[in-house]
Write a structure and sequence with these properties.
The complex is a heterodimer.
Chain A: H1 2-35, H2 41-49, H3 53-56, E1 60-68, E2 76-84, H4 89-102, E3 118-123, E4 128-133, H5 136-140, H6 145-162, E5 168-173, E6 191-192, H7 224-227
Parallel strand pairs in A: 4-5
Antiparallel strand pairs in A: 1-2, 3-4, 5-6
Chain B: E1 2-5, H1 22-39, E2 45-46, H2 56-64, E3 71-76, E4 85-90, H3 113-130, E5 139-141, H4 144-147, E6 153-158, H5 166-170, H6 173-187
Parallel strand pairs in B: 1-2, 1-3, 3-6, 4-5
Antiparallel strand pairs in B: 4-6
Helix pairs in contact in B: 1-6, 3-6
Classes of the chains: A alpha+beta, B alpha/beta.
Chain lengths: ~260, ~200
């Protein structure tokens, strides 16, 4: 019995000695972790949503990304970046858009806000891509027609250059359709990315304009205000972009009525 | 002429680090454009007179209720080379109507796109003469305000709220007003409006 007690005391002494030896190591770990800056919520989300390049399995290729040219005139400049591009169009779209969001070396040439995150990307069978960005895209893009147009065009041109399967693009903010990007540019529409997108069924002819409007049901009753308008209802001729005659111009269709604006709740 | 000083109310629009607010600057610009247009014989309406913020549709409604209106929405950018001015017209819309011939409200601009482009090029041409570095032709963008406007419609955007002193922007107002008025005057002869509903010109 006495021998058993000596064994127990011995074991406890050894455990205390090991713990005492580990204590400085633990202290150093705590000090190091305290020095590491805390990650913002957006950074953590970006890490979680960003696809791992290693997991794509694709060979390293050259992606063409569109950032500002720096000319202060709203123009964009293509920049080639080596990326392990996936063959899957959805993964590939995420790769190039995430790289576009990270931005160029010169931060002055950014087209999208640094805190914006691509939350999801879908590709519909008709070639319509749906890019869902975090709220920072709407709240942190500089307000203005030029800056908002540059942001959207950088997305469209980057997708056109790298993902040939995408024909149109719908941009969502936090899963929702929004009226404008930052007060000016219309985001209710579906943007044309690439009219020659491969292996996609054709859309109705009216939708093959340079940019396509998301169809919404027309309301049948005209508002009183529109009744007195000089508005012309469109004729088939108005459906195609017509050349502007040299002299007398007029809407090519007889006056008609406007449907009232769609009231959103 | 329907002038639209953009934003207002709770929406200040673009804001500069020096406290410049787009909604206030465009109100001053609109007053000067109105005077310049009236001096050339135009009848002018504005979508807001003070610090209100009508909806996009309410602003369009003012132009859509007029016969033969021309619409100009005024903006100040966050970016761009200070001292330059750009004119935008709506990018292509697929024009469509249903069996009853009604134009969908959300594509009201579609039948007017060629006229808007012509008007925009006139105004941009006059602006380029006065403000060096501005483009020579109107540019195309999916500007929300233009989409529901059933009239020749342009957006004029001045650069920018990033200037140190608001006086720099205010000094541009007479030149912008003159260019818009001259552009409207040059465009007017080519804008023929049918006098009777249903009549083809």
């Amino acid at each position: 019995m006495l021998r058993w007690r000596w064994w127990l005391v011995g074991m406890l002494v050894i455990a205390v000695i090991i713990a005492a030896g580990y204590f400085p190591v633990l202290k150093r770990h705590l000090r190091l972790s305290a020095q590491t800056p805390a990650k913002s919520e957006e950074q953590v989300r970006r890490e979680l949503t960003q696809p791992s390049n290693a997991s794509t399995g694709g060979p390293v290729g050259t992606a063409k990304l569109y950032w500002s040219s720096g000319a202060h005139d709203g123009s964009l400049m293509p920049v080639t970046v080596d990326l392990p591009l996936s063959r899957d169009p959805v993964v590939r779209a995420k790769q190039v858009l995430n790289t576009l969001l990270v931005g160029p070396v010169d931060v002055e040439l950014r087209t999208l806000p640094p805190d914006a995150v691509l939350l999801a990307f879908y590709l519909l069978p008709d070639g319509t891509g749906v890019a869902d960005f975090s709220e920072a895209l709407a709240t942190a893009t500089p307000s203005g027609i030029e800056s908002e147009e540059m942001a959207v065009q950088s997305i469209l041109k980057t997708l056109e250059a790298n993902v040939p399967q995408i024909r149109w693009l719908k941009i969502l903010v936090h899963g929702q359709e929004v009226d404008t990007l930052a007060g000016h540019l219309d985001l209710t529409r579906t943007f044309l990315v690439n009219a020659r997108a491969v292996a996609m069924p054709a859309r109705p002819a009216a939708a093959t304009a340079a940019a396509d409007e998301s169809p919404k049901p027309a309301l049948k009753s005209a508002p009183a205000a529109a009744g007195s308008a000089t508005v012309k209802s469109p004729s088939p001729a108005a459906k195609k972009p017509a050349a502007v005659p040299a002299q007398k111009l007029t809407p090519t269709t007889p006056p008609g009525k406007l449907t009232p604006p769609e009231r959103k709740p | 002429m329907v002038l639209d000083p953009a934003h207002g109310g709770t929406d200040p629009g673009a804001r500069g680090t020096g406290g410049i607010r787009e909604s206030e600057v465009v109100l001053e610009f609109a007053a000067q454009v109105k005077t310049a247009l009236e001096s050339l014989g135009f009848q002018v309406m504005t979508t807001r007179q003070g610090n209100e913020n009508p909806s996009f549709d309410d602003r369009s409604s003012i132009a859509n209720a007029q016969r033969g209106a021309i619409f100009v929405t005024l903006h100040v950018a966050s970016t761009g080379l200070p001292g330059t001015v750009r004119v935008y017209v709506m990018s292509d819309l697929s024009a469509s109507s249903d069996a009853s011939g009604l134009i969908p409200w959300d594509r009201a601009q579609a039948p007017f796109l060629p006229l808007s482009r012509r008007f925009g090029d006139f105004v941009q041409g006059f602006l380029a003469q006065r403000f060096k570095g501005s483009p020579n032709m109107a540019q195309v963008a999916a500007v929300r305000q233009l989409r529901t406007t059933a009239a020749p419609a342009i957006a004029v955007e001045v650069s920018s709220v990033s200037v140190d002193d608001r006086g720099q922007l205010d000094r541009m107002a007479p030149g912008v007003a003159d260019a818009i008025a001259r552009g409207a005057s040059a465009f007017r002869p080519s804008y023929v409006v049918a006098t009777n509903p249903g009549e083809r010109p």
